[in-house]
């Protein structure tokens, strides 16, 4: 398994939006934005695309998947 990290806080700051504003645009709760920003929650694929579309960037510009090391 790996971790999904995101740049949501950075993108939000670049647009001058509050957590509440982003949540409102996406029709989700502010608590969901908080959990996403703290990497406590990984969004559904649909929500990930909606977030990328909101910021008008590629999904890979918002979310990065980091694989954990494997013993091969």
TrEMBL record:
UniProt organism field: Shouchella lonarensis
GO terms assigned for molecular function: DNA binding
Keyword Metal-binding: no
Record-given protein name: Transcriptional regulator
Domain HTH cro/C1-type: 8-62
Highest taxon of the lineage: Bacteria
SMART domains, alphabetized: HTH_XRE
Keywords: DNA-binding
InterPro entries for the chain: Cro/C1-type_HTH, Lambda_DNA-bd_dom_sf
